[in-house]
Amino acid sequence: MYARARGVAVIGVEGHIVAVEAFVGRGLPALLITGLPGAAVQEARERVRPAVESSGLTWPLRRVTVNLSPADLRKEGPGFDLPVAAAVLAATGQVPEDRLEPFALAGELSLRGALLPTPGILSVAVAAARAGLEGVVVPEANAAEASLVEGLRVVGAPSLGRVVDLLRGRWSPGPPPVAGTAPSHDGTDLAEVRGQGQARRALEVAAAGGHNMLMIGPPGAGKTMLARRLPTILPAMTRQEALDVTRLHSVAGLLPAGGGLVPSRPFRSPHHTISAAGMLGGGSLRPGEVSLATNGVLFLDEVSEFRRDVLEGLRQPLEDGRVVVVRQAGAVTFPARFTLVAASNPCPCGYHGDPRRRCDCADPRLRGYRQRLSGPLLDRIDLRLRVPRLTREELMGSATGEASAAVRARVEEARGRQRHRLSSHGVACNAQMPGVVARREARLTAEAEQALGRAVDRYHLSGRGFDRLLKVARTIADLGGRDRVGREHLLEALSFRGEAAEERAGAA
To answer: 427: closest CA among 292, 294, 315, 337?
Structure first.
């Protein structure tokens, strides 16, 4: 007795259709699963039989062999419980096998036969649509998530018994529920930030061009407050960006039950004790923080306290917009296109260079603290600036800054100019331009070229630093609605370079 159902193996964030074959033959009662199953799939042997019997169905008292094909593809997660149960029921004639053909099935079963919320369902639905299947059968709690894929029939079932009723033609489910949406941010606003004119401007430039940013300043200067308001001035995500974010959060198990499309750009702020696997991804080939921050912001508070291997691991995703995780189970590529915002104290005590408080750090300790951020990593950060302590007038004054809505309007206009200019290059914003494109699209005036030449000689810019300076200047010109990059745009971009800022501070 043989039957086949379809499941989906989620590898990274991509789903792959898997044939779940069941054969019931002679031998002592047992359930064997072959085809490179992971630990969670192997444990299905102990879940599926109680679920079937609790649903009022019959489990065959014979040798049951389940094969997951292709056999060289690693299968992980509890989502194979439902297709394994369905294939066995079809092999024993309890449900018609032909009714399984149009569907891919996914879902974890409880011992009582209930279908439990399962991570990665959006990837399952995308894979089913790409394979040309009619629909998917998923847990009821994941139905809204699966319905984000257009043109796919989604059946959200509460239990294995209901799936059997569906296959027997005794149950016609209604349309899946419409997923609710969350507000774009939690009510924070850039207007709440007092003073810090240069830092506010740097946030606007970072949002407009997708540039990475490093803020160095004493405790209480407002670095974290500024970083948390960057999402409030970023443009709204496109539907495709929102789908990409939702799929990553689904695979990571971060979507709430009944949740649908993630409407707001992610803001990830891992603690400085995070491991390299937690930051970059790993373990069971799950996405790390750099991937969960895709299309949003990755904020590293007290960046100098992070482990060096964690920080150096950021170099590839910052440059390529992706991270390749290699483990014994295989190699997986995760998207990692995010805006990095890092904050640090100037020294271990936090008061180096503060005119009002004395720094007690010895020179060797100070040098060691600064060397935690390597030159190659700093070279990938476009905006590097000092955030000073607030003055008495700024602390006690009642004046408010410009609201996020006004800044976001300028950012969206600048992003619109970039999309129009860069559409043929396949990039969305200035920070993503390859170096050769940046040099061609900068369109410098003669005065700007002269200023650029002097900057190259004075600050010994690397090739990467040269290109990133051009990209920032191009973004500043876009914010001003200018077609060409002028001298004033280049000088402002240069003011966000750490070398230039330190030179001006020393001259003062």
So the answer is: 337
